[in-house]
Amino acid sequence: MMTLIHIRFRFAALALCFALAGCTGSPSSPGQIGDYKVGKPYQVLGVWYYPRVNYDYSETGIASWYGPGFHGKKTANGETYDQMALTAAHRTLPMPSLVRVTNLQNGRVLVLRVNDRGPFKNGRIIDLSRKAARLLDVEKAGTAKVKVEILEAESRQLAAIAQGRSAAENAPKAVPTVAVDAAPLAPIESPSDSQDTAKSTLSPSAADRVHSVRLAKNSPPRRPRLQRRTGDTETAAAPSESPAPRTSLAGTRSLAMAPAQNGISDWDGENALPRPDGTVTQVPVAETSIFIQAGSFLRRDYATRLSVRLSVLGRSRVTQTMIEDRMFFRVRLGPIASVDEADRLLEKLQSSGFEDARVIVD
After folding, report:
1. pLDDT tens by residue, 47-86
2. What is the rounded distance in angstroms from the CA atom of residue 329 to the CA atom of residue 298?
3. Hey, which of 110, 157, 228, 245 has its CA 20 to 30 A from 239?
4. Where are the domains of the chain?
């Protein structure tokens, strides 16, 4: 459900995205994708966001939707926003990416393509297009508890296609070819004829140059080196005499054999374009609650102190979780009865200096 303040925040955020992340490009036609964008860290309403490539991304939180005020305008990666397309806005994921969105209130699941930045209000984690909101049964309520997961293989494929197209558009023009005149090589002389070397019509250096020209003219063109991707880095592969195996630009393993995903149009082969097909599936979902996470610490005593301070605002507790072999202690307020109440509490915390406070669903 769009509000005037929501629209104003999105306009400010998009203007900032264009200034910081270079979010420009040509609008895309149906079946195409916009420019590949990740972008630099940026700040909106006092909160810093750090875009990055993260193919392990999975998060729960509150979803919202946006539509009429932005229909026909540019998205952050240069597409033309269509409120009836199967797209979404995310604050940090690379664009384009494919994500699976699960409505944790009714179990509906839909695949969407991320092509925009946002949302930046009240800790929302994803902004759905109007059509996506309808299919997930979010349009009327305006918000919903959701889980968002990136689809790695398909997102890598999209990134490879978008980057490859951009590279082709920006590649320098081929160097023009010109005809080369070659002089005949001097006969090879034996050591006994060394006293007649001065009679040679060509100096050794000139003969070498002519020989090089002939080799260049008669030799087959050299095969360009392949680029081998490892994670998010690229290294040049050494030349090989035998034909190199075909590899996908999107990763070291071939994406052509990626398992089919519900909600994605059929795709096979390195140049295929995976896209959402609008299929809605339904899965069983467990009951979830809304919390506000005010902070996360490596030391329990720091978390305990904050929990005591925040207890005047409601039920506060310390939970723990392992992240990359390190124990973190999280301070949470809740459970909270509604999204509106969570919004009010989050705004109070952020205005009190807890800029990193966020709404979570668990």
Report:
1. 889 999 999 999 999 999 998 889 999 999 999 999 999 9
2. 6
3. 157
4. 1-168+249-285, 289-362
Whole-angstrom Cα distance, residue 312 to residue 310? 5
CA atoms within a 13 Å half-sphere pointing along the CA-CB vector of 336:
26
* CATH class assigned to 1-168+249-285: mainly beta
- Whole-number pLDDT of residue 8: 41
Residue 323, classed as helix, strand or coil, is strand
Q: Coil, strand, or helix at residue 120? A: coil
Whether residue 124 contacts residue 49, with contact meaning beta carbons closer than 8 Å, is answered with no
The answer to whether 110 touches 135, Cβ cutoff 8 Å, is: yes
Taking residue 149's Cβ as centre, other Cβ atoms within 10 Å add up to 17
Transcribe 62-110 into DSSP letters: EEEE--GGGTTSB-TTSPBP-TTSSEEE-SSS-BSEEEEEEETTT-EEE
- 289-362 architecture in CATH? 2-Layer Sandwich (3.30)
pTM exceeds 0.70 for this model: no
Q: For the segment 260-304, what is each residue's pLDDT rounded down to a tens digit?
A: 456 887 555 556 789 999 999 999 999 999 999 999 999 999 999
